[in-house]
């Protein structure tokens, strides 16, 4: 081999892009530093942290098993809030998804309407929705279920809409070419294609909703959160730990259930 | 049954002129094959007939009803009489064979009955019969995504035939299939159509298959009909007109005078030229007499 004349050079990014990338990293770092300083966050008394944790754990131990029967009813209520909220969301989310998907929405106005519903629903936290509906319906599980539904509509509408945009439109056209009505096109051309996603997403959202509905009680919207909030305020740490263990169990169970449900629908 | 297409034009939003005024009549129970290079407008033509693609201008008359003038409900009713078979089968993959075949009856049942898969017994019986005819007996509960390409296209044929259509539109039925399966599928298609006396308008780019199975051949080049005649009349220069058109189709920007010139080149051997259409059997393409044979 003769000596190579390195006449050609290669860089992944040109000069402008390199400067741009450098500025980007610098900006991210400055945001981090600025936030840190604004919040004046400093762990000043590090030595007390382990002591406080140990203290809390000793007060929580042993969990108050005798308290368990009292939380069965609120727990069942929590599960019902999650189920009802998810079902309600599902009913509302299907039309929203059809509006928010580019290939099924009738026109530009309906498309933006769909996107608007999705955005509004998603940008408001469940607990804020709950505050609103506690005012509307009074405190209790109904406010909780409606809050769950309103938050979930955006989630389901957005993800289901994206699934609808991914479908094979040839299958839809074939159904339409046979003289099917638009409802029938929906049932035979679109629904079968998004069914696994529909089931998977609703179960996944139900799973999230079980967790969300455990804290709805903090604002009076029913469920086990009412008990938890009361126990924390009363410094009844052994009851708190009992509630937390039960919530953990329910969340684990719902996660297992949702995983197997999604496996079943292919 | 008569399908009468007059002056059909389609200009896409991009400005592409896919069809530049196509006239075509299909009647009786003959099989008409439309050949032409890719991009000639074959698919656009077929899709304009049942308005899966909206034509820009022209009329499509099925037994005297102008399909281009129908409103949504009218179009839906008219589509029940037009069976369509697709290149990529376009079966609903996650549904069973039976559900796919019964899709052909959707135009006759309510959405609620369709949702509950509660079809009239006659429709189910008809579906079973068609499935047996296409060689898929006992496959009704298989999901379509478990089937082979050839089997899928048989389901596609069954779905179109169970509509009891007045005409079958077939868009490149074999381009996803191997040569042997292509031949079987084409034979099945033309046989069923003949049994039921349904005329077939079929898009195909494989000339051999068209010659073997069609009664009449229409050659489309760059959005215009450049040949119309029986399979026997499809000589080398006719093929040359359809597939070369004087120039490679990609690089061609034809003007009116240019395509005239191309036709006249070929016309030395053929008999009659009129409006850029050559009828190889010596007749001008008179609407009332164009019947191939």
Automatic annotation (TrEMBL), chain A:
A molecular function (GO) term: ABC-type phosphonate transporter activity
Q: Sorted alphabetically, which InterPro entries does this protein's record hold?
A: MetI-like (IPR000515), MetI-like_sf (IPR035906), PhnE/PtxC (IPR005769)
Pfam families, from UniProt? BPD_transp_1 (PF00528)
Q: Which domain of life is it from?
A: Archaea
Q: Name one GO cellular component term.
A: plasma membrane
Identify the keywords attached in UniProt to this record, alphabetized: Cell membrane, Membrane, Transmembrane, Transmembrane helix, Transport
Q: Which residues form the ABC transmembrane type-1 domain?
A: 75-258
PANTHER family associated with the record:
ABC TRANSPORT SYSTEM PERMEASE PROTEIN P69, PHOSPHONATES TRANSPORT SYSTEM PERMEASE PROTEIN
Keyword Transport listed: yes
The species this protein was found in: Halorubrum trapanicum
Intracellular or extracellular location(s): Cell membrane
* Name of the protein in its database record: Phosphonate transport system permease protein
Annotated TM spans: 21-39, 79-101, 127-150, 235-257
Parts forming coiled coils: none
Q: What is the lineage of its organism?
A: Archaea, Methanobacteriati, Methanobacteriota, Stenosarchaea group, Halobacteria
How does the UniProt record describe the way this protein sits in the membrane? Multi-pass membrane protein
Q: What is its main location?
A: membrane
> What SUPFAM superfamilies does UniProt report for this protein, alphabetically?
MetI-like
From TrEMBL, chain B:
Example GO molecular function term? ATP binding
- Please give the residue ranges the record annotates as the region Disordered: 243-293
Keyword Transport listed? The answer is yes
List the PROSITE patterns hit by this protein, alphabetically. ABC_TRANSPORTER_1, ABC_TRANSPORTER_2
Statement: the UniProt record of this protein carries the keyword Cytoplasm: no
Boundaries of every ABC transporter domain copy: 3-247
Basic and acidic residues bias (residue ranges): 243-255
Note the Pfam families from the entry.
Answer: ABC_tran
Q: Which GO terms describe its cellular component?
A: membrane
| Record keywords, A-Z | ATP-binding, Cell membrane, Membrane, Nucleotide-binding, Translocase, Transport
The domain of life is Archaea
Q: Supply the Gene3D superfamilies for this chain.
A: P-loop containing nucleotide triphosphate hydrolases
Matching SMART domains: AAA
Coiled coil (UniProt feature): none
Protein name per UniProt? Phosphonate transport system ATP-binding protein
Show the taxonomic lineage: Archaea, Methanobacteriati, Methanobacteriota, Stenosarchaea group, Halobacteria
